[in-house]
Amino acid sequence: MSTEENIVQELVKNFGYLENKVRLARPRRLFLDVDLAHFEEVFAYAVQKLKFSHLISITGLDEQDNLSFLYHLAQKGVMLNIKTSAPKDNPVIKTVMSYFPGAEIYERELVDLFGAKVEGLPAGNRYPLTDDWPAGEFPLRKDWKGGHSDA
Amino acid sequence: MHDSDKFKIPMGPQHPALKEPESFSVALRGEKILGVEIRLGYNHRGVEKACEDRTYTQDVYLIERVCGICSHSHSTCFVQAVEEIAGLAVPKRALYIRTLIAELERVHSHLLWLGVAGHEIGFDTLLMYTWRDREVVMDLLALLTGNRVNYGMNTIGGVRRDITAEQAAEVLKGMDILEERTKYYIEVATQETSIIKRLSGVGKLYYPDALKLDAVGPTARASDVDRDTRRDDPYAAYPEMAFDVITDSNSDVYGRTVVRVKELMEAYKIVRQCLKNMPDGPIAVKAPRKIPAGEAVSRYEAPRGEDMHYVKSNGTEKPERVKVRAPTLANVQAVKHMLKDRYLADMPIVIAAIDPCFSCTDRLVSVQQLDNDAHQVLTWQALHEYSIEWHRSRGTDFTALNKKLSKAIG
């Protein structure tokens, strides 16, 4: 059995709700969907037990009523992409800085470009938008079309 | 931060030419750095959003312009993701050509870096030599692609230009020249006491911190992190290439120098293998205009480290989402750590040593004494001169070495 198949089995064995939620897209590419309530335990397990010790980035996605967050983890060549979602009207997620201090910049990007609210993210410089960027304007949301807002 | 002996020095962000002009706000006590705050995003161009409004083909050209040096890195990383979603079988010859251009790009980038590093420590003869030698590879890239940068080689499904036997012969000649030069640079880097003395122990990033801060590329490998996407998550023709992943345990700017000069030798090895084993056949398959719904993550070992692109498609001719994570964003986190408790005079070389997409000229350094609003504006050049002078007064002087090397190579 391949390493990737082992990982799928391990995950499903430990977290029954992940049945049919882990997808091996191709060798070295795993995708996993988990609801927000279970995100932290699955993420912690992946990092600590399965040794996905490298966070490459976090991708934000605007999926109509929800904002989704795709955490790109790697264990050498194998990638585990963990996706979780939060309602767009209250997109609260928790920081993963306790696992990866370097996650700070990726989480700030989610705050600026998607309007995510990241609990536990320390105060600091914003990234990547300017300090005078108007509040409530999130460029990577689908309904944001650019140009000037008079509001 | 308001004690009379503490200064806060904002550096940057002015730098119109570069992808990610950063601003470092440095808190100092005397000559020592207490802490660094980094403000990024001054040149955020909204490329990801722009990709959603363009077709996949247009995006290849836009993505290629994410970086002026790693242009082929970004375009390859992007097309790989799209090809995976579309299920395209890219011809082997195209994969070999992509790999060839990738390694020539690495050679150009590493030689450029070596020159910048030399300049930042006052070893300008090294800058002159490496940039002269870099012209060899720039000419080869222009010969193969028509351009010195932004090569426009990639398309979804393959590459846009084939390589002729005559071109291959020219590339091989160039590799022989560069290999000789690089052997000399390895000798200089590993034997010249002033280089070793000047770079050793500067910008320390120990193994656990490199891992914890998710450093990538030569920056991580110089801290003994044995990680290289070309070997670990192979793409293009790398599964068929024999090469060594260079690591070093010095965990400082010296280690980062050794890793890069040795990686040049590996790049020549890969270039030769590409040309020797390149299969005949087509260089592209036709890609559909509309890409079926799906998603893919692509990784690529750019000269500065791992690049990652995520592409999500929705069945139309335009992507739903494109995400780019360039290596500098990963490494800039480690810079804070490297600078803490170090001397201000080491700042130029420590920043330059992650090989960020900036740090050459025109950078303003504004020095502010917090307690009395005294404000002084320095240029990057002035900080550079301060750094050279600071080390010279402490016995590290490249004047003699500059002269000696000028005679060594005609």
Descriptive overview:
The complex is a heterodimer of chains A (151) and B (410). With 151 residues, chain A is of the alpha/beta class. Chain A has a domain at 3-95: Beta Polymerase, domain 2, CATH 3.30.460. Chain A contains three helices and seven strands, in the order H-E-E-H-E-E-E-E-H-E. The N and C termini of chain A lie far apart (58 Å). The model of chain A has no long low-confidence stretch (mean pLDDT 94). Chain B is an alpha+beta fold and 410 residues long. Chain B has helices spanning 47-52, 56-64, 71-86, 92-120, 124-145, 165-191, 193-199, 207-212, 217-221, 229-232, 253-277, 327-339, 347-353, 380-392, 399-408; strands at residues 6-11, 23-29, 32-39, 154-155, 158-159, 294-302, 305-313, 321-325, 364-369, 374-379. In chain B, a hairpin with a 7-residue loop joins strand 7 and strand 8. In chain B, helix 2 runs antiparallel to helix 3. Residues 14-20 and 358-375 of chain B have low confidence and may be disordered. The interface between A and B is large, with 39 and 35 residues.
Number of alpha- plus pi-helical segments of chain A: 3
What is the number of strand segments of chain A? 7
| Backbone shape of chain B | globular
Residue share in helix of chain B = 40-55%
What is the CATH topology classification name of the domain at 3-95 in chain A?
Answer: Beta Polymerase, domain 2
**Total beta strand runs of chain B:** 10
Ranges of chain A where pLDDT stays below 50 over 5 or more residues in a row are none
Strand arrangement, major sheet of chain A: 1-2-5-4-3
Query: H/E order of the elements of chain B?
Result: EEEHHHHHEEHHHHHHEEEHHEEHH
Radius of gyration of chain A: 16 Å
**Greatest contact pair?**
A-B, 39 and 35 residues
Per DSSP, the total helix count of chain B is 15
Q: Which structural class fits the helix and strand makeup of chain B?
A: alpha+beta
